[in-house]
Amino acid sequence: MAASAIITGLVAAGGLISKIIQAADTAQHNKRECKNLASRVQMIAELLPQVQDPEAMRPLAGLGEALTEAHELVQSCQRKGRTYRFFAAGRQSDRFREVQGRIDSLLILFPMVGLIGLARRLDGTGHVSVLNRASSSSVHSAVSHEVSESDSEGAEVFTLAEITAATKNFGVVLGKGDSGTVYKGKLHDGREVAVKRFRHGQRSAEATFGTELAILHPVSHEHIVRLLGSCAEDEERMLVYENVDNGTLRDQLNNNASPVATSWKARVGVLLGAARAIYHLHCRAIPLLIHCNVTSSNILLDRSWTPRLAGFGASVWRAPDVESQAVDIVQTYGYEDPEYRSTGGLKPATDLYSLGVVMLEVLTGNQPVVAVWEETKKTMVDTTLVSWALPTIEAGQLGDVLDRRPTTEPTPQQRQALQLVASTASICLRLQGDNRPAIPDVVANLEKALQLICNDMFGRL
Ligand SMILES: Nc1ncnc2c1ncn2[C@@H]1O[C@H](COP(=O)(O)OP(=O)(O)OP(=O)(O)O)[C@@H](O)[C@H]1O
């Protein structure tokens, strides 16, 4: 999976490289800087085909972002008028130097990437973890170095001793997932953290660690969990996140006393935050991303019940100008996009389908998979929430499946808002990805729904 993500990112990088070289040729201003930048990009273009092991390419995960910036910079030289170019010349030279520095720091990594590939081939197992401690930490610091180039705050590298002390020897479990266990901790400077400790010696855990570190670290958004840093010593692979206090949306919907279970305003607010996070990934992040595992268990809630999207272990870079990407991902049962399942082509619309399932969970209070009575078999069988709830909603009977814990009878304004959420869910759940809405439309509908609920509350005061 991580390998496909890296290949996809590098394919996108290949497209950018030719665009930069073309644009640099025609840029009127800062010509020397443009040419310098283009010659560095040309070097990358020549080196890339020689590095063929996607796992070994992890240290280059920030390449897409650096090239995107280089492309924008060169393009901005082409676009602006003469007066602007005159006055902005100094500022642009500074930006050129900065971007060139970042590209230089990636160029330095190419020989090391070649060595990792060689070590993996000699070892024959394909595990980076078989490198000895010294090589392993140099790989790690290379990854961190690259990442810190793309984030002004820099990735933190923690030692095993620091993590052991922070978690009081892995004493408090916050949760368990497919790739490992998450522990509560407190760093020496007082920051509360959640530490994901990946299962030892598991190939998929190793890949998830690399993917999540490369993909999530540069991302910064109020509705996306913050990755503070990582620890890679010997067999240990750990990611350190800010601690998000109030568990997952799934936990809260399961808890009758939770403010989320008992309030439509809180529920629609959580949906809106999650949709804004996906909007950021699909439309704003550099490089663009597809989350691939949007579930109610991957939406964490902080102490003010603000949602933070987590679970980036399956995420992929979204190649620009590509309609669908042939990547191999495993989605959670109940959230699987039927189009991806049948074609293997991943689109941003895959996240829209999973978000549609989360909307149904919020409306009905049910799990993504529900047990129903099967008359012919005279027994309970599992079915997806989509097949249980969607036909009723589409028949205009939302009230028959609506969760009654927030209010036994919604007010007219609440009903209007919930109907809007339900019809948005219904179009997100269309079989063909191209018939689903784009994420900005979903955000707009959820904003409207939340507004209706808030207006109603003011009306009653
Ligand atoms: N930053 C965090 N703050 C608090 N709790 C967290 C945090 N991250 C994860 N958890 C808890 O740990 C659980 C498992 O985390 P996560 O889903 O990221 O693991 P995973 O192994 O990637 O799971 P999967 O691959 O099955 O989605 C979460 O459901 C949540 O309860």
Overall number of strands? 14
Instruction: Briefly note the CATH topology name of the largest domain.
Output: Transferase(Phosphotransferase), domain 1
Give, in spatial order, the strands making up the sheet with the most strands.
Answer: 1-5-6-4-3-2
Give the overall shape, derived from the CA principal axes: globular
| C-alpha-based Rg, rounded | 24 Å
Output the CATH class name of the largest domain: Mainly Alpha
Can you tell me the number of structural domains? 3
Protein name: Protein kinase domain-containing protein
Pfam families: MCAfunc, Pkinase
Keywords: ATP-binding, Nucleotide-binding
GO biological process, one term: cell surface receptor signaling pathway
Task: Describe the overall structure.
With 461 residues, the protein is of the alpha+beta class. The chain has three domains: 118 residues; 109 residues, 2-Layer Sandwich (Phosphorylase Kinase, domain 1), CATH 3.30.200; 211 residues, Transferase(Phosphotransferase) domain 1 (Transferase(Phosphotransferase), domain 1, Orthogonal Bundle), CATH 1.10.510. Helix content is 52%, strand content 13%. The chain binds adenosine-5'-triphosphate (ATP). InterPro entries: Adaptor_Cbl_N_dom_sf, Kinase-like_dom_sf, MCAfunc, MLKL-like_MCAfunc, Prot_kinase_dom, Protein_kinase_ATP_BS.
